[in-house]
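User: Predict the complex.
Assistant: Input components as received:
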Amino acid sequence: MSDRTVANVACLGCGCTCDDITVVVKHDHIAEARNTCALGAAWFGDGSVPAETRVNARSASLEQALTEAARLLNGAGHPLVYLAGDISCETQREGVAIADRLHAAVDSLAATAATAVLAAQRRGRAGATLGEIRQHADLVVFWGVDPSGRYPRYGSRYAVEPRGVAAPQGRKSRTLIAVDVGEYRGPADTDGRLVIAPADEVDSLEMMRAAVQGRAAGAGARFQAAIDLARRMTAARYVAIIADGEPDPAPPDPARAEALVTLAQALNGPTRCALSTLRAGGNRSGADAVLTWQTGFPFAVDFARGYPSYGPQAGAAALLGGGELDVALIIGTPATLPTPVAAGLARVQSVVIGPRASAATFQPAVTVDTGLAGIHEGGTAFRMDDVPLPLRPALDAPHGALVTVRALRERLRT
Amino acid sequence: MTQPARLRIKGGTVYDPANGVDGVVRDVCIEGDRIVADVPASAPRLDARGMVVMPGGVDIHAHIAGSSVNHARRLLPEEHAVDPVPAPRLDDGAVARSGTGGTLPSTFATGYRYAGLGYTTVMEAAVAPLAARHAHAELDDTPIIDAGCFVLLGNDDYLLRQLAAGEAARARDYVAWLLGTTRGYAIKIVNPGGVAVWKGGGARRNVSGLDDTLGSSAVTPRKILEALAGAANQLQLPHPVHLHCNNLGQPGNSATTLESMKALSGQRAHFTHLQFHSYGGAPGKGWASAAREVIEYVNAHAEVSVDVGQVMFGAATTVTADSPVEHLLYASSGRKWVNVDIELESGCGIVPYSYKEKAAVAALQWGVGLELFLLANDPWRVVLSTDHPNGGTFLSYPELIRLLMDRGYRDDRLKAVNQKLLAGSALLDGLAREYTLGEIAIVTRAGPARLLGLQGKGHLGPGADADVTIYANDADRAKMFGTPRYVIKAGTLVVEEGQLRRAPTGRRLAVRPEYDAAVTTDVKRFFDQYACVAFENYGAAPVT
């Protein structure tokens, strides 16, 4: 293929899904991915991926691989379909269709934000698309997260630097506050900082909500700084609270996620507020959206009864750990799998169709290497705020993930 | 029965109001995906003797696909858990999909259930342009029904800038470009200006009337209405502007509604879920019905069309781009609440809800909707909707039809509801009207199809789409309309003997009006300055 330059490419390196990347291809490799951050540059790499197809660790034809994969899946008692990273929504849709047909369990990388998703299911959301934070936020509170680590361009594209409709001076139009909660620290370069002991985090959020609702009474000095921040938020025109949907390690108190939601909701009484929940890459937000529209549930779904059931406490990791599954179909990059899922896969027979499938460490029975969505394959991906974006592949792939998964589906029992 | 390319529906009692056929026993013939005048005598027959034959149902306003709907689905796992939808068994070895129901069913369940009610065309009523790609992806997974998207424009930042600058032609070109690039069908306005104010933050929460200003005195709800209604008519769109007025759900809002109608006097415009905009009384001082006053205006003005947005008792979910209203509902109901501000364009608010017969306001809303139906002079311009799932789900349409057709049943139900706010309601005067089958055919298919400008829908004349629904003529109209015996979509028999048998892919309904391409240069400049997605990645052009 000839050298070329592809503009407006979306990057799946993290959930920011920056779509201003220009990919320069020379000699069938990515020579340059302009505008990327370090995460994005690593995600694009030079675009080279392995192109192997294996059955029981031996090279095989695609036909042999699909035949064996279909044999394993058709014979399974209770299979798992797992939507891993770097596949398009179109491929995810095929994956859920396979799970439906096989009466399989289905889960995805979206489960990494389970705590935040469950909090939203109990209480709702006060949110905004990232661009709306850019347009309107005059007070941005980083709650125990510095996006520059795992979401490097979040600040420059959305919440800190860019000029917006109501933020004509960009950074100067916004006040930034960092909230440090133990080891979860906010950014270094802010206009203010609040330090909260981890044991006080949820209580602090509750005290802040009470203050916003005008019902704080005699909290004492321990929460005074948090209450002062709440008053400052109440006085702002539009507050953005930035929190990590996938904090690592997981915070000790799962009530934190719900307390963040209810504080953000309460702030919409006296002023406006959006909670921005950061999610990582690989199009995991797409998996959440697809599973929701096809089944009504965002992750941890099981078709065992012939229809979708929701088991937020019984996702892939728990089912694998409990020995309840016998065959797994992994669609996507196996290296993106959460550690407990990858560990559980060592105990079942598995089929992996996705980028670098052949590099899976859990000894799958069948692997088909494909390209990555967004580098070798087109389709749709969702930003962390559920904004859909088209993918613009700059390279060709050995096998397309979508066509391969579709070919597998057509071989399954009805 | 195998799938015939030709079919004679033999001997049914046909209601085809667009062609002046009102309960006449005659054959309806199909060849391929079209209605034809006749087929050879050897063609397969479907015995419809004693049954009622109508065009497939057309839903002019529902929320079935896209970003806001999916937020609502995600919010309601408890509803999905108790309403499983196993995959239907289809003929010919075709593989169907399972799903879940509730007020916001999964996509496949949505298609199956609409078809199971005899509906073959549904308009998704609120698509934010930024998320249009998402709406189309969901519709791709919604089988059987043909569907179109109404594109949200009444709070769009670029559009409001053109109004502020007096750039009327550019505003119109922008509308045309946006409809094409999002694969939309019609212009939707939701609470013009009000959502933009809500998103702007600070002390102002909403607009209160047509002449509130937004930054510039040139930008008011009235100006937004005039610009977008004008654009729809100048672009000769098949459907006029589809308007959700300011002050939805507020006591006394009938004044705003009537003022909006007068503002667009002489122009075609469609006022959606009119029930939610037909209240008397005043904020903080109580509620009353203003249905009579509002429908009298509609009756007297042929350029106005409406869908009713009937409230039905039971579970609902309020899901709307009118986010300031949802904040009020959240504050008053204490239920869980989703708000999503959508950059530069629109909003999204969601609160689960339940209408109870014993609740005074819910009973008033139920009564107002029925008054609008029963006092309407022209069913072609006052068509059926529940604003699914806001006033109730589409599964309640058969019950609504029974309320319209069966006065005895309606009066019994009226006795059971809270009467506190119904004083002055025409319902209490003993409205005797009973809709006929012909009128039901108008408000559920012929009327919406005509208002949407869908020339192949809503009728059974030669050349029409072969979308046909056949009902057993049951005196219990809820049962009759809830369980059609046969449904044919584009010539395919999808429901046989009351069972879903086939689930073909539906078509997308979209417009592509012409515009001066110079507008895209200016829009791209705006994107480069403010937007968070590349201009080239915007819209819903199919991806490989």
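The CA atoms of residues 53 and 217 of chain A lie 66 Å apart.
Let me know if you want any component modeled separately.
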